[in-house]
Write a structure and sequence with these properties.
heterotrimer; A alpha/beta; B mainly alpha; C mainly alpha; A: alpha/beta; D-Maltodextrin-Binding Protein, domain 2; 2 domains; six-stranded mixed sheet; 15 helices; C: globular
């Protein structure tokens, strides 16, 4: 396709072929002895959700800049299914412990999976080494609908049971909705619709009364939806969320901050033990992305708010995972239907 | 809809073959039920509904078959399934080659495996005729598959010696 | 979103000036559509580096042209070699393949091309004119109503196997049971997966499709010299342009059929997540119900081919409506288009029609232009493409098997899916040999999970009250129509019998 001013498919293929050639050379023992450069071939990223979803959007924006620092491309492979479980099992089963294979997922809901059912691998065999965003869990409504504020919702929820569209039950945003119901006495009936896109469709088509999701996708469709409440301790994007109040400030609760979207890179622990030098290159270059103005441009192109982008260290990730597991245990009966 | 009908010499219907699908369906349904016995009701409701109807339908078929057997209108012959014995060995050979293809493709790579599969399967079906043409055709098709699926569409087919060699060459 | 004829003429002319993008996209779309497992969605993903680099308007035209033409491409192997490339083409071989076997493959292709193009063009224009109203459809077709729509499709199970209804029902319910494999939508507990992780996300459709239809067929046809019957071969040998044009003429004479079945596709397409497979089965079922000759369906009946082909192209225009009006993509391809548009910073939603009409109306004009250009480029090829069917089965069978295994692999890139296709091939082979209808199994596998999804959603919303199924006016109207369309064929049959007895 000869489209002026654009890279053609052929050029693209040539680029890939050149990269492939480089791999061939580098894997030769002699070349290896001469210089151990990392990375010498493309990095593979396992994504446990569908293409076009929230994690995919974040990943594309991030790697479009990260690749500049690593000087190689990223190849994403998507393994959706069973709330992300399939992707993790695939990663732990197939990925080589050589720092070329990473996983990129939405830590919050995916960690809650392990509360529901232990995976086939040991949870200590992988860890999240960099969180790229902190996306608050929110309660949102259709702009054309009857609700204007969170007080309208709670008042109505005391009169009748409201249907709340959620991505899945084991999700921080769903836990937020449950916590709100518990505190205010409003009746919420959670409807899992498998994924953010379907959840928003449920609210957009008015089949559900309201929805609970990470804020990013909802904000990017701000014309359709109004955010009524935030489940975090502060509202990082007041101007794009109709200045939505936070649950603790508005209702005087003392709930932990429910970050619903915390997309993060994970890696096999064995890979880091085998190649600490490579791991260092990954983490050093990764941090540079956050200060690169190009990254801000890439994020803003996705219509997701830049304010949600926040680097999280391996320690911060571990703490968040631990907090979620504790909260998940509290609501375990609801998440598994074994009440 | 076009269905295979097998002409039967005898007036008695051979219904042994007809029972393979229902038996498989019953076995699968029982297995399925065993996996949801402890699940929440949402995981059970549709499967129990569908599975029960399926078992009832198969029960009716069973009764129908028993009546036909008792009346002597049918027997448990498997001819409907295994008819045309002349082709049975070729069919089983093709099945074995197909299983072999999938098994080997994981380490021998797409292109080589496809070539060997196409060539052997065609030779099997042609009973060894047109060998040169078949080898040429299989090579061309395998190569075309490589160009289309691996080079152009970058499908992640398992790579083998051929793909790795081409990677170095390109 | 006011209708302004001047704007549309201008847009149409402008889109036509991008023929240099549209024509290559058409050919690419036809190729990827014809390869099982590939689809417009995964091709657009493969080409993302290219599409993202394009100007958003050109990128969108490119994606739309690829989308529309891949839909048409999927019909080609479905008709010629019984391999539906996507679930949307699953109803196409029901009558398309018997036509091929009778030596009328080229005619079947011509009929499919005309119905796809006419259906696609018509619904695109309708979508343009009626967008504000059509976008409302999604507000009314909720889970309760969709359950009934699904049942329209599932009721086909009873009618496709009219020869032995009991066996037909067993096949269909077996299919529904297989379709229930996978994690449940509420608590994600694995069910009937035999411990395979690859089955957690339900039975993948492409391996089931190609296995049940193509692999089972490949194992059957080795008894014959070619897939075409002897009489068919004679017909094929003397087939010329006249026969192809005859196909065009036949299709054109079915204009009313094309119109209403494509509208079924358009309406179902507007509902987010519904898609082409349900639309084509519902269209086929409706077509059969109101036909004067329902017994001919499945034997190579023209209307049985026209209905699914116009309907699945109607879906193509339908899925763009929720994307552009409410910013929610109606299907996988539309979701990828959204990624590209967002990358370019295009804010999707009602405002787009005011802020950037070129982009908002662009997809529809691009689709209309694509259909117009497509029919011109593809029709001459029908005769040559159909020649593939006369190739000896000695060569065809291995090629079909390897080709379908490739198809089974590419959609998820699991080697496991190739084994799965083979298992379905064996099930399909046994089913065909012993009089169980494979299409009935397949309808169960495809529609079963969707039905369960809507059913559980409705039940959960009503907190377990089964009466929710009869809680909406539109839903109740649909129930009555469903009962009517299931009962009608029996009534007509009864009346015909009475009349025959009276005349005898």
């Amino acid at each position: 396709m000869a489209i002026p001013g654009t890279p053609t498919r052929r050029a693209f293929l040539k680029g890939s072929a050149a990269a492939a050639g480089a791999v061939g050379l580098a894997s030769h023992p002699l070349a290896f002895a001469l210089a151990e450069t990392f990375p010498s071939r493309n990095i593979n990223v396992y994504v446990p959700t569908r293409e076009g979803g929230g994690a995919d959007r974040n990943l594309r924006a991030f790697t479009s800049v990260w690749k500049k620092y690593l000087k190689v491309n990223f190849e994403n492979a998507y393994f959706p299914g069973a709330a992300g479980r399939v992707g993790y099992e695939k990663y732990m089963g197939l990925a080589k412990p050589d720092c070329y294979d990473l996983l990129f997922g939405n830590m919050g809901p995916e960690v809650l999976n392990w509360v529901v059912k232990q995976p086939s691998f040991d949870l200590n065999d992988y860890f999240y080494f960099a969180r790229v965003d902190e996306d608050p869990g929110v309660l949102f409504v259709n702009r054309d609908g009857p609700f204007k504020t969170i007080d309208d919702i709670v008042a109505e929820g005391k009169k009748r049971t409201l249907n709340v569209a959620v991505s899945r039950l084991a999700h921080p945003a769903s836990l937020g909705a449950l916590a709100l119901a518990k505190h205010t006495g409003a009746q919420f009936n959670l409807i899992p619709l498998s994924g953010g896109r379907n959840t928003m469709a449920g609210v957009a088509t008015k089949e559900a009364d309201l929805g609970a999701l990470p804020s990013g996708g909802v904000i990017s469709r701000g014309k359709n939806f109004r955010i009524a409440l935030m489940f975090t301790h502060d509202n990082p994007v007041p101007d794009r969320t109709d200045n939505a109040p936070t649950i603790n400030a508005h209702f005087g609760t003392n709930l932990p901050s429910l970050v619903a979207g915390s997309r993060a890179f994970a890696i096999k622990r064995e890979a880091v033990q085998n190649h600490p030098d490579r791991y260092k290159i990954l983490t050093d270059t990764l941090k540079e992305v956050f200060t690169d103005p190009e990254y801000k441009v890439a994020v803003e192109k996705t219509k997701a708010p830049w304010e949600l982008i926040k680097y999280g260290s391996p320690e911060a990730c571990a703490q968040q995972a631990k907090d979620l597991m504790v909260l998940g245990e509290e609501y375990k009966a609801l998440l598994t239907g074994q009440s | 809809m076009a269905q295979e009908s097998t002409p039967l010499e005898s007036k008695r219907k051979r219904i042994g073959g007809d029972l393979v699908i229902p038996l498989a369906a019953v076995a699968f349904t029982i297995y399925y039920f065993s996996t949801i016995i402890d699940s929440p009701w949402t995981a059970q409701v549709s499967a129990f509904f569908v599975g029960t109807i399926l078992i009832v339908l198969i029960g009716i078929l069973g009764v129908r078959s028993v009546i036909a057997l008792k009346k002597g209108e049918a027997d448990l012959g498997m001819e409907t399934l295994l008819a045309s014995r002349a082709y049975l060995s070729r069919r089983l050979g093709l099945l074995a080659l197909t299983v072999g293809f999938i098994f080997v493709v994981d380490w021998a790579g797409f292109t080589l495996t496809t070539f060997v599969f196409l060539a052997t399967a065609m030779l099997l079906l042609s009973e060894g005729r047109n060998r040169r043409f078949i080898l040429f055709l299989s090579a061309m098709l395998a190569l075309a598959g490589y160009l289309l699926f691996i080079l152009a569409f970058e499908t992640r087919f398992p790579a083998g010696p051929f793909e790795n060699l081409m990677k170095q060459v390109l | 979103m006011e209708f302004d004829p001047g704007l549309f003429v201008e847009l149409f002319a402008r889109t036509l000036s991008f023929w240099w993008v549209i024509i290559p996209a058409i050919f690419l779309g036809l190729v990827v559509g014809a390869i099982p497992g590939f689809s417009a969605a995964n091709t657009i993903i493969i080409l993302l580096p290219l599409t993202l680099a394009m100007d958003p308007e050109i990128g969108l035209i490119f994606m739309v042209a690829l989308y529309a033409s891949s839909r048409m491409g999927a019909g080609i192997p479905a008709i010629l070699v019984n391999i539906p490339g996507t679930a949307g083409a699953a109803a196409t071989p029901l009558d398309g393949y018997p036509m091929t076997k009778a030596g009328r493959g080229h005619q079947a292709l011509a009929i499919s091309f005309v119905s796809s193009t006419a259906g696609g063009l018509l619904t695109t224009i309708l979508a343009l004119l009626a967008m504000p109203w059509l976008s409302q459809v999604a507000y009314y077709l909720h889970s309760v109503e969709m359950i009934v729509v699904m049942l329209f499709g599932i009721s086909l199970i009873a009618s496709v196997a009219a020869r032995d209804t009991l066996k037909g029902l067993i096949a269909g319910f077996f299919g529904l049971m297989i379709g229930a494999i996978g994690a449940d939508v509420v608590y994600a507990t694995p069910r009937g997966t035999f411990g395979f992780l690859e089955l957690y996300d339900k039975v993948p459709l492409i391996p089931a499709l190609v296995g049940l239809f193509a692999i089972s067929e490949a194992f059957l046809v080795i008894e014959q010299r070619s897939i075409i019957t002897k009489e068919g071969q004679a017909l094929m040998a003397k087939a010329g342009w006249a026969e192809t044009w005859e196909g065009v003429r036949i299709a054109c004479s079915k204009w009313w059929h094309i119109t209403w079945t494509s509208i079924i596709g358009l309406v179902i397409g507007v509902v987010p997540g519904a898609g082409a497979s349900i639309a084509s089965f519902v269209a086929y079922q409706q077509s059969r119900t109101y036909s004067k000759t329902p017994e001919l369906y499945g034997t190579g009946h023209v209307e049985g081919l026209v209905a699914p082909e116009s309907a699945n192209n109607g879906v193509t225009s339908g899925t763009l409506i929720p994307l552009l009006v409410i910013g929610i993509p109606g299907g996988a391809t539309a979701a990828i288009m959204l990624v590209v548009l967002q990358y370019h910073g295009v804010a999707i939603g009602p405002d787009l029609f005011l802020s950037n009409p070129n982009l908002a109306y662009g997809p529809f004009t691009a689709m209309a232009v694509t259909y117009a250009l497509m029919i011109l480029t593809i029709m001459p090829l029908a005769r040559y493409m159909s020649k593939v069917t006369v190739v000896s089965t000695v060569y065809m069978t291995p090629v079909i098997i390897s080709f379908t295994l490739v198809g089974a692999f590419v959609s998820r890139e699991y080697v496991f899916d190739m084994y799965l296709a083979l298992v379905f091939g064996v099930i399909g082979y046994i089913a065909r040999k012993t009089g169980y209808h494979v299409a009935a199994i397949l309808i169960g596998v495809i529609l079963g999970p969707m039905l369960e999804n809507y059913f559980l959603r409705a039940l959960r919303m009503s907190q377990g009250d089964i009466m929710v199924l009869f809680s909406s006016t539109l839903g109740n109207i649909l129930w009555v129509l469903l009962a009517f369309s299931i009962g009608l064929p029996y009534y007509l049959q009864y009346r015909r019998k009475r009349r025959r007895q009276a005349t005898a």
